[in-house]
Design brief:
Arc Repressor Mutant, subunit A; disordered N terminus
């Protein structure tokens, strides 16, 4: 199957974009990037991403994240799922627990797009 026929996560789509300071985004690119930024714009998801990233080895068990919020476990799992589906977190199951790890390359690509690196 051709790579052009594969569906990219929003984080992967950002990696394909030139920095905003170099050339304007096309309509399709802007729509893909907006999905990623929308995922990050939620305060709970932004805090979850920060908690995982700052955890030892940049990886955290979902069991360690629940106590940081006054939200139900299914709500926390929903927010983690959104971050995972958008390519910001990787996850792996170990026994009954799910562990999340930040995809640092996705954050680096996002920083480059906004103009942080080499702009």
């Amino acid at each position: 199957m051709s790579k052009s026929l594969l569906e990219l996560t929003p984080a992967e789509a950002v990696a394909c974009c030139s920095p905003l300071t170099r050339e304007p985004l096309g309509t399709d690119q802007a729509e893909r990037v907006a999905v990623l930024l929308k995922a990050l714009a939620d305060p709970v998801r932004l805090r979850l991403l920060s908690l995982v990233a700052s955890h030892a080895d940049g990886e955290a068990c979902v069991c360690d994240l629940n106590d940081a919020f006054s939200l139900s476990q299914p709500t926390i799992s929903h927010h983690l799922k959104v971050l995972h589906e958008n390519g910001l977190l990787d996850r792996s199951k170990r026994g009954v627990w799910v562990y999340y790890k930040v995809r640092r390359e996705a954050l680096t690509d996002l920083a480059s797009l906004i103009g942080g690196a080499g702009a």
